[in-house]
Design brief:
408 residues; alpha+beta; Aminopeptidase; 2 domains; 9-stranded mixed sheet; 5-stranded antiparallel sheet; globular; binds glyoxylic acid; binds manganese (II) ion
Amino acid sequence: MTAISVADAKYALALCDRIAAHTDVPGTITRTFLSPATRDVHALLTAEMRALGMTVRTDSAGNLRGLYPADAPEAPVLLLGSHIDTVPNAGRYDGILGVAVPLALLRAINGKRLPFAIEIIAFSEEEGIRFKLPFIGSRALIGELGPDELARTDADGITLAQAIRNFGLDPANLADAAITPDTFTFLEVHIEQGPLLESLSLPLGIVEAIVAQSRFELTFSGQANHAGTTPMDLRRDALTAAAAFISSVEALACSTRGLVATVGVIHALPGAPNIIPGTVTCSLDIRHADDAIRDSNAGQLLAQVTADCLRRGIGVTIRETSTQRSMPMDVALAGALAEAVSRTGRQPHRMNSGAGHDAMMLAGKIPSAMLFLRTPGGLSHHPDESVALPDVQAALETCMRLLETLTH
Ligand code: GLV
Ligand code: MN
Ligand code: MN
């Protein structure tokens, strides 16, 4: 049994700090798909992976992948990892900790070879910010990054295919990202990003299922006009229509058990205090553990906004930008992970994940599991996001126990 030291946990947290220093927007932590700062993070992680005895490559979807060899050739591969892109003005642990903890685990293993290889992957994209398409990195592993996705454009009109080329990679080679048949398990370590574990005074959670999520973009088209001369009853204000929609989103989510719905982006044009807004675009993110409930509530909201806009004389177009079905984690693996938590002397807590994760893409292809760490204050997608050193040590001890189980 290899022991985990507090130094291993400190190494993981220091790595998160070092990665946080690489940002596209100074003064914040912001890294989108294959952005300039991502190149620096790749250089940092490559050096770290090589120092730990791994061979390193970047696949054609921009995922950085380190391989730690097994004690014999042609052994199966255990895949560990998470994403290194961020939301705008992010914290330093969402995704990143799921790369840092596996590297700290290798540090603790200290050169010992196991009967399986360990691949650590830093997924290029999970948040869906740059191309309004989440899970770009993990989609490539399961063969779901095709021509439609590659043709998506970012705010500057750059296609996803071109962004890959601009990073020095070839989107025609995406097969090199596919999960290999010898990969037998995926484990993602992630902060919980919610308040549940903290409320139970427990450091670790085992994910049973990841909830469904859909995202839409709505465009409201009214008539921009003079704010002083246009009487209220003769206006076609796109922003007041959008405001009514946002209120309906909140009202429905508050009255539907388990439903969460968010309008997180809104742009009003032309954007001056003395002009009635003519065009408004906004997002809708809607989630529920049950696909059917999520779908029917999304349908209700979109039908309602269509009818309301008709009444107001406002045009509305709705584009579904992404949809993910809810995804159960592997039952046996979740059991092994819970057992590993128990063997460290801690109480495992089974829970669902309200956040989306790369594991929900991989779970359709290979047995996948997620280990959650308590998130102080339940605060995430925020610069004050944090995690406690003893909880990182608990996660490392659990991962080590799981490696022992997989070894026998
Ligand atoms: C990922 O962070 C998500 O939005 O679920
Ligand atoms: Mn996130
Ligand atoms: Mn994440």
